[in-house]
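Subject: for your reference before the review

Hello V.,

The reviewers asked for a structural picture of the protein, and I figured it would be easier to keep everything in one thread rather than splitting it across files. Below is the amino acid sequence we used in the manuscript, unchanged from the supplementary table.
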Amino acid sequence: QVQLVESGGGLVQAGGSLRLSCAASGLTFSNYRMGWFRQAPGKEREVVAAIGWSSSTTYYADSVKGRFTISRDNAKNTVYLQMNSLRPEDTAVYYCGAAESMMVVRTTPRYWGQGTQVTVYS
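And here is what came back from the structure prediction:
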């Protein structure tokens, strides 16, 4: 079955950096668009970034543009989220998702990971 496993979350001071990873299995990774979402306590899940199958197409939420970078390694079946200049408002559970189109991966991915907690303190 399809599995998406996130890692790399943790506790970091404001201004610091973290790199999240999402390892995929059970699917032909290069056929899927990948996305990162986050959900803060009491808030709805929101898309953070998404990437096409070839990395030539990317999308970023306005709140993370210039600070976060999404990338993928199709040979390792892994998608990454490099997060720099972190702010307390970036605190959330971060999830990766997979879908067969960019439109869907930005809204309702077909497959989800279990999430990894990111906490930014000031």
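For the response letter, the relevant points are probably these. The longest strand covers residues 18-25. The two ends are 40 Å apart (CA to CA).

Happy to draft the paragraph if you're swamped.

O.
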